[in-house]
Write a structure and sequence with these properties.
23 strands, 16 helices
Length: 495
């Protein structure tokens, strides 16, 4: 493939191809991406998890071999000069001093969906600080890097004491390639419970537990931390001298893509396992931890209001295992609205926007009776959850939808119809995280705004008054049910 080249303000040639490692909870993708954010090639693999040892953990040894081998392969087909990783914010890696010592870990990387031992959960809670110290409410299972560190420290104190660094997922891969350890604001601002984004300081738990020695100095997501280690390059046939950037949280990378395109005022909704809505315009005073709201960070370290809920898991609970690949039928959705069928939260083990609702999900009205109705209900329900996220952020202006939910054309149409006074657009490009991550390679030197193709969703044909009434009733039932469940659970816990 011929190399495309652009020029910075000084007239210096910039490589147009960046290697982007996108580490998700379920799958890992390695991409060759042009400087404009266009995907040239992608290879992917499931993110392996092992059940052996002190806890379920990611198999970083197997994954490392795959990453380095596939990176060498991409380098033979594309002129790669820069490597940068994105990753989910719910995991961290405790490492030793040597990135060549096996997978480099001091203890296995905890699978954040594993349930915590009860005593660890109870002892951790009073140490975690205020809402802004945490950046979120207490979420399910082993989510939060600080909670994982606490578990490791209590369960394996000797190994923990010998460790050198605790790194976010993207920074682990930067360290493996370059040997340089850094911290980064978007990753620590993704509900790690380690970094107070609003005040720009470490959370109190860092000092109280003596963890400052494990947290390396900060680097910006776009900053070069070093070059690929010569020994690693020789072993795998990687390009010697490849520049390694610090790396970024995946949802923040997607948000950055729109910032780079000039959409600073928009609320961005990324969809997949999680619905993640981010807005740089939401006042911090509006953030309510009881409703799944978060205080994130953008690439400059500035606070970003957020809200998240496990919409993808909710979708799967409703659809079941026999959905096939059919799209939701607008006629069926209209029929279910007319007869008052509703899915009420929450079907998974996370409260999301509705405190006390975890595992209490149910249907109101006639339940869906076949696969087509379940699919229609699932798409309608996730659209309702999305609108609830936007209402929580007080987002009345432009909203940009992207991610896997857009595979069903009706999702964006429903979100648009449910918020008729807002401007709702969709980006059908399914590689937002990789594109945004690649754009970091030319942060500050880009001569023009990044190009993004946004589309207005097709209109959902249903009487607006009926749709508004359905939304109002759903919000009332969902919120009332959550309040009742939350109050009941709180009374039991204090009795």
């Amino acid at each position: 493939m011929a190399e495309r080249r652009i020029f910075d303000r000084m007239g210096t040639a910039q490589s147009a191809t960046v290697a982007v490692l996108d580490v998700g909870k379920t799958n890992v993708k390695l991409n060759a991406v042009t400087a404009s954010g266009t995907i040239a090639e992608t290879v992917s693999v499931p993110n392996p998890v092992l059940a052996t040892g002190p806890w379920k953990h990611h198999d970083l040894k197997t994954l490392s071999d795959w990453v380095f081998d596939r990176l060498a392969g991409l380098a033979k087909r594309h002129p790669l000069e820069t490597f940068v990783s994105s990753g989910h914010g719910s995991g961290g890696v405790l490492v030793g001093p040597d990135p060549d010592d096996g997978d480099g870990t001091a203890l296995p990387m905890i699978d954040y969906e594993q349930h915590l031992p009860e005593d660890i959960r109870d002892r951790y809670t009073p140490l975690s600080g205020s809402f802004f110290d945490r950046g979120s409410a207490m979420m399910h299972a082993a989510t939060h890097q600080a909670r994982q560190m606490f578990w490791m420290q209590q369960a394996e104190p000797k190994a923990f004491a010998r460790a050198r660094w605790f790194l976010g997922v993207p920074q682990y891969w930067a360290w493996r390639l370059s040997g340089v350890a850094v911290s980064e604001a978007t990753v620590l601002g993704a509900q790690s419970h380690l970094w107070n984004v609003a005040e720009g300081r470490w959370s109190p738990i860092v000092a109280s537990q003596g963890w400052a020695r494990l947290l390396p100095p900060f680097a910006k997501a776009w900053q070069a931390v070093g070059s690929i280690r010569p020994a690693l390059a020789r072993r795998y046939g990687l390009p010697e001298g490849m520049t390694v950037l610090a790396g970024i949280h995946d949802s923040s990378a997607n948000f950055y893509r729109y910032q780079a395109a000039g959409f600073d005022e928009a609320t961005v909704v990324s969809t997949g396992t999680w619905i993640v809505a981010l807005s740089g315009r939401t006042p911090l005073a509006h953030l309510d931890e009881r409703r799944g709201m978060t205080c994130n960070s953008d690439v400059e370290g500035r606070p970003v209001g957020g809200v998240l809920t496990m919409g993808g898991r909710e979708f799967t609970h409703i659809v079941g295992k026999d959905e096939g690949h059919l799209n939701a039928d607008p006629t069926i959705v209209s029929r279910m609205i007319e007869r008052g069928t509703m899915a009420l939260p929450s079907f998974g083990d996370d409260d999301g926007l509705f405190p006390g609702s975890a595992s209490k999900g149910h249907f109101a009205g006639p339940a869906p009776k076949d696969a087509a109705e379940r699919k229609a209900m699932a798409v309608l329900y996730t659209a309702l959850l999305t609108v609830e996220c936007l209402d929580a952020l007080d987002s009345s202006g432009r909203v940009i939808l992207d991610g896997s939910f857009l595979r069903d054309p009706l999702y964006a149409s429903l979100v648009s119809a449910l918020r008729p006074r807002g401007d709702t657009v969709a980006n059908l490009d399914s590689y937002g995280v990789a594109s945004g991550t690649a754009l970091l390679a030319h942060h500050g030197t880009r001569l023009s705004r990044a190009a993004i193709a946004l589309q207005k969703p097709p209109a959902f044909q249903h009487p607006p008054a009926e749709l508004a009434a359905y939304l109002h009733r759903w919000q009332g039932l969902a919120r009332q049910s959550a309040r009742t469940l939350f109050s009941s659970r709180h009374e039991r816990s204090t009795s």
